[in-house]
Design goal:
With 254 residues, this protein is α/β, with parallel strands linked by helices. It has two domains: 155 residues, Rossmann fold (3-Layer(aba) Sandwich), CATH 3.40.50.1980; 64 residues, Nitrogenase molybdenum iron protein domain (Rossmann fold), CATH 3.40.50.1980. The chain has nine helices and ten strands. The strands form three sheets. The chain has a five-stranded parallel sheet with strand order 5-4-3-6-7. A three-stranded parallel sheet has the order 9-8-10, with helices on one face. The two termini are 34 Å apart. This is Corrinoid ABC transporter substrate-binding protein. Belongs to the bacterial solute-binding protein 8 family. Pfam families: Peripla_BP_2 (PF01497).
Length: 254
Amino acid sequence: MIKKIFWIILAAAVILLLGGCNGPETTENPADSPAANAAVKDSAGREIKMPANLKRVIVLNSSAFNMITAIGAADTIIGVNDSTQKSEAAAAGKEAFGSFMQPYVEKIIAAGPDAVIVNSMMNSTQVKQLEDAGITVISLEFYLPSILQDEIVTLGKLFNREAQAQKYADFIMKYRNLIESRVKDIRPENKVAVYFEGYSEYSTVARGSGGDELVTGAGGINIAGRETVKYPKVSAEWVLEKKTSGGCKDHFQQ
């Protein structure tokens, strides 16, 4: 019974993280433009001076695309990364600008966006090329449950959708708190041992990753949690030796 409950809770946590729930309705009533010289801190810890009016953005992070859509600012997106264009119906008509790790820098510069939203996996050299061309680059992850609410609020400030973003953040926090209340009393000996597989075969997750936070937050034990690298590569034999209670495959692509 505990195993069944765990998988239900984990599924709910994944849906919330990936923006699979509609959440509260949003409206298309943006506030005034951000104040001159106002700044926000992105997920890389950098102080970003907010552009005066974000009307044309390129989003190279699928999770960010979903969140921007959720707060009602999808009309500002002029381009996405390749996998988002292929996997998200709402992005099918958007221009593609390469992968999230290796975007087409020259094409982005030629498009002249107000900002480019990336994640921490983008090549730092390419980030610098964009910034040297006068393009604002903002790093937001949206895969770590522990900072998800803060990132949504930051997104709201950037797109003048603060009220909508706060509603969505509160919606997610409501169910995150519910999950925590349901799993907090599970005894260690009753916790489910889980193998979490990432984007490729036998690529798993350790502490500091979004997958690890999902498993432990749902009351499970990540069998790779103590590995020394964040995204270790393992084998079928390694998984079998750990005697897991089940596995979870992440099909979500950046």
